[in-house]
Each structure stands twice: as structure tokens, then as C-alpha cells.
Amino acid sequence: IPLKWKNQRLEFYKFQLKKKMGLYGEFNEWYLYREAKGKGLSPRKPPISPEQLRKALHTIEDNKEEYDVSFKFCSKSETGKRILELLTRQ
Q1: CA–CA gap between residue 38 and residue 17 (Å, rounded)
Q2: Residue 6 carries which DSSP code?
Q3: Using CA atoms, how far apart are residues 21 and 19, in angstroms rounded to an integer?
């Protein structure tokens, strides 16, 4: 299933590197990173991709003995309500 979420930091990261190197079009963040390093720039490593984040969260949730956490996601408009529900839960 393709993910709909896009990491805005990742998009901005790619935009900045493309602008610095004068590139146009779609490029993988790691390609841009390697190209920038090759041109003598010192870019920071790219932010985590949505796929990496999903895998990390699933690993943490599946390892109940070590972490004992679960992740719940909601829209920004529901965030305050959800926080209050979690804090007032007994």
C-alpha cells in the first residue's frame, strides 16, 4: 500500500540540495547527498523516509517486552482532545 504521508523535512532537504547544485527534476535524497559530497559540499544526512519511520514504529510496537508502547495517530484538529483523553485516563 503506498503511503500518502510525505515528510516535509525530506521534501525541503531535497529542494535545498537541488537549489545549491542547480539541479531540476525528481531525485532520490541519497543520490543528492552523494552528489553534494562529491562536489565538495558538506550536506547533513537526509531525514528519515516514511518507509523507514513506518518500519521503526512497527518494530517498537511489536517488541512489547522491551518497549510496551503503542502509537495512535489523528488529525491536527483532534490532537488536543486526544492528549486530554490520554492524560485523564486512569
Answers
A1: 13
A2: -
A3: 5
Q: What is the mean pLDDT of each run of 10 residues along the chain (90 residues)?
A: 69 90 88 90 84 87 86 86 86
Distance CA 6, CA 86 (A): 27
What pTM did the predictor assign? 0.54
For residue 12, how many C-alpha atoms fall within 13 Å in the half-sphere facing its CB?
A: 5
C-alpha distances (whole Å) from 80 to each of 23, 74, 87 are 41, 10, 11
* CB contact at 8 A, 41 and 23: no
Residue 17 class from Cβ within 10 Å (0-12 exposed, 13-18 middle, 19+ buried)?
buried
52 three-class SS: helix
Any alpha helices (H) in the chain, and if so which ranges?
8-21, 29-38, 50-62, 79-88
Helix (H, G, I), strand (E, B) or coil at 54: helix
Structure letter (DSSP) for residue 48:
P
